Amino acid sequence: MRKCLTSLLLLISSLSVCSICSAEQEHHFVKVADPYIEMHTGAGRGYPIFYVAARGEWVNLIYRKTDWFFVRTEDGKEGWVSAAQLSMTLNPSGERVDIRDPNEKDFVVRDWEYGATVGDFEGLSVITFYGGYHFTENISNEIIISKASGPVSSKTILSLLNIIHEPFPEWTVSPFVTLGTGWLQTEPKSTLATARDRTDQYANIGFGGRMHLTKRFLLRAECKYYTVFTSRDDNEEITECKAGFGFFF
Amino acid sequence: MQSRIRVFLLITAFMLSSTFAIAEEKAGKAAATGENTEVIQQDPVIQPEVTRREVKQADIETENFEIGVFVGLLSIEDFGTNPVYGVSLDYHITEDLFVQGRVGYSEAGTTSFERLGGGLTLLTNRDFLYYNVSLGYNLLPGEAFLSRDSAYNTSLYLIIGAGNTEFNDDNFFTINWGAGYAVTVSDWFAVHMDFRDHMFDINVTGQDKTSHNFEATLDLTFYF
After folding, report:
1. This model's pTM is above 0.90
2. Cα distance from B153 to chain A (closest Cα, Å)?
3. Which residues in chain A are closer than 8 Å to B133, comparing Cβ atoms?
4. Is ipTM > 0.85 here?
């Protein structure tokens, strides 16, 4: 485990160094069309304004962090300008600069969605990580990995097939129904040391809702009913309810 | 027989004529394209002096992700304070909110019971591995003045999240919460001091209890 983590550390640090090396500064000049734009010392509303670029001045957009753009004026002044103010600047062709955040419409036609949820899995606390791809506005599939743990046992849930149908993706809270299958591994607590690990296949149905919160951020809540096909005489029935957040791209 | 020969000749003639027709048509098309190419290749009357470049949102580099490595100390309840290290990935949603994924590893020490017990051990596996997802809020953004000429942007943030801890060959659902102080050293590099409590229910010492595992780390992070 330690070796794994060390190699992961090395990989990540080398990746980040590479991303820094390859970061080239391109020129994206825009012209101030408002009477002035305010340049702050930091990427936040509270940072002091140390310079104002007047109408007609050209500023170069270097990079963006959340709602703030790091800009450089022609005489070398560097600072942060809010996206709201920059949308009042002009392109070289004289048109308004198109700066727009992902909105509800982008949410409806999203391709990828990733997130995490927490909740209750038949008395156990569960955390779930998921990633999904939308084939159409209504149909998507998700890959899920969950870890549930309680005083008696812990469970790992892996699923590669979770078909989700959203009948009304344009609603503020978009409801969905889901149908899936996967594997459920049960590990009894080591302090109990009586039962052995077992892995069973399961099928589930569920329902839930998603809501676009802001930008690429969404909230999500769902309940699922599992039937676990055990090797014992009876199948196991499990109810799971959880909520969390996700991102779409 | 004659009629068969006639039919054969007619078919051959038809095929030949249609082949020629297709060939001529192709040649004609090629000729027409050639003419067009010539027209396109002629010099334009007015030479543009500058190539104007429109600013598109997608072309501007964004630095909303922050990847980091950290080292520090983790106090594992009942099992001493030990070095911890790991990696983190942040996504900044707005100037206030961010989401963080974090993986950390430590190794539990021995309890006084184990040290005095002469070979007795409470744990089957001393590896302590946690992973979690947390939501952070930049509560107090500000600036720190190191000298007369150098100012660094800083932020005091609160963070809360959930995850899993693998310890003693068991899994524990873990809530983590805490606060941190981030100093942005340059446009791509920041240093964080992060303090957290990892809470989970455990009964390894014979009684059910909520274990509090305090962690203090120094994080080096890179924006990309």
Report:
1. no
2. 7
3. 116, 127, 129
4. no
